[in-house]
UniProtKB/TrEMBL annotation:
Residue numbers spanned by region Disordered: 312-340
Organism: Desulfosporosinus lacus DSM 15449
InterPro entries: DUF7768
Domain DUF7768 positions: 2-97
Name the UniProt record assigns to this protein: DUF7768 domain-containing protein
Biased composition (Acidic residues): 327-340
Amino acid sequence: MKLIYICSPLRGDMEANLKRASQYCAYAASCGVIPIAPHVAWNGVFDDTIPAKREAALRLGLELLKRCDEVWVMGNEITQGMQGEIDEAARLHRATVYVLDEQVEQDLKIRQEHTPLALEDCILDSNRQDYEGKTLVLDAQCLITNCRKSENSLWVAYNGFGCTYGARGQAVYAKSLFDGHEAHWERADFLGIVKPESLEKWLRQNPIRHEMAYEVAQEAKQEHSLEPSAKGDLGWPYVNGYCHGENTRLVPTAENLAAYIATKGLEGDLTITNPLDQPFLTTYGTFIDRCSDFAFLEQQLKPVLIPLQTGEIEPPPIQEYSGPYELADDEEELDGELEP
């Protein structure tokens, strides 16, 4: 079992944060790992209100992090101390995954799928395409037995003669999508380019949140038929966004709703409705409160919203809908309103 460093807030309401950290540890343990949260393990040893002792605790925490296999960033808030731990994990090439409070509360477990991806997870005949810049499925047989896991399946090729189909050279230099470490492979070590649906499933089980993962997900949507339809991801011509009573008609794609939530949510709570003005989604500031379409929320909205919430990516401009407001006859009956 893997040893997992639990990264979560402490300062502020320390009693509540210690309780939450214990809950995070219980959640992680239920996912089949060994969790350790420094401020739970060392509760009462260091006084976090005394700067010198806080610094000593942080140093020991970073030493502990070096001995852990992964870092799990827990909750909807990233504090200054947590950011230092995240930065250290990146420096050490420790895989870092992010788990929101909603996932813990709903017991939505991660890292449950360990079977490595296979040929059926590749786009048909993609092994005859160029590989540079593509996300590739590594043949699990190239790995030692205890490394043949889903987390080690996906690699992003960035260089090497083997990236070009038909070239005499076979070297492919690639980065692990999971933890970012680089390796030299041969072209024959890869089964092909990953299918978008397999990539999405993999990202849900391994909720990494770095720039390469974000770019990979966006490129997959653009290149392999995961682009929004003419009516947007939700199938409606537009949605209404309400902030302090002000209505903005929005292009209904996941990316645009994420931009609206991350930007306007700073001004207050939001309500998003379908074209018949039936509530579809509500927020507490920039965080989701309720959404009537769970699949859209988990599979499309959250992957693009979370990097905006944490400040890793700047929100793009909000796209306002400028087309006709009348609904077609087949759109008069709409599903998706929030249940009372």
